[in-house]
Amino acid sequence: MFKTLTRSFLLTALLAIPTMAQETSTSRTLSEQLAEKAAGFAKQAPADRLATFAKGIADVRESGIENSAKQVGEDAVDGTLKGWKGDSVTLSKLWSEGPVVLMWYRGGWCPYCNIQLRAMQQSLDKIENAGAKLVVLTPELPEKAKETAEASGISIVALHDKDLALAKQYGIVFELPDAIAPMYKSRLPQYNGNNAMELPLSATHGNRIKIV
Length: 212
Hints:
Layout: E1 4-8, H1 30-44, H2 47-62, H3 65-68, E2 80-83, E3 88-90, H4 91-97, E4 100-104, H5 111-122, H6 124-129, E5 133-138, H7 142-152, E6 158-160, H8 165-169, E7 173-175, H9 188-192, E8 198-200, E9 204-207
Parallel strand pairs: 4-5, 5-6
Antiparallel strand pairs: 1-9, 2-3, 2-6, 4-9, 7-8
Helix pairs in contact: 1-5
């Protein structure tokens, strides 16, 4: 097993309203784009909804998930997953060929994830020129992941982490807080093919290489 050397989490995306959204990509950094999206939501959303999401984020943080998730230096977890093209990909085979960057996104309904996907697409040449491979994972059904890629104008093929089985081994899955879960009940089953009110942290792990 290779070691996970880098890691980042995006808890802010809990603020995402479950609806497909497209944002204009610019030369701004990913952090700047995410902050602008969050600020726009804060200006438009009713005060009670803002309070609900703020409490939800606090509840997730207080669960300790950021500390219980795979940490820098721990062994990466292997897995075999399929993309919408039907090809199986085994992570350990990719690791044997060189560094790998693993990134989870929640679904095409999440505007924050769409921003992140487009940012990774724009960084793909940099990642590959550093000798690494980008592997994107999602609980979305393969046909939904394909729709997300087409809507976002990206060429990255996402692998289906069915029922978040691999994400759970990385310790990045959380249950939606009770106050927030009803907002997702009509969306998650449609995208993920199950009734679980669970989401992964928008996590990125790297092995053997650091992409800046």
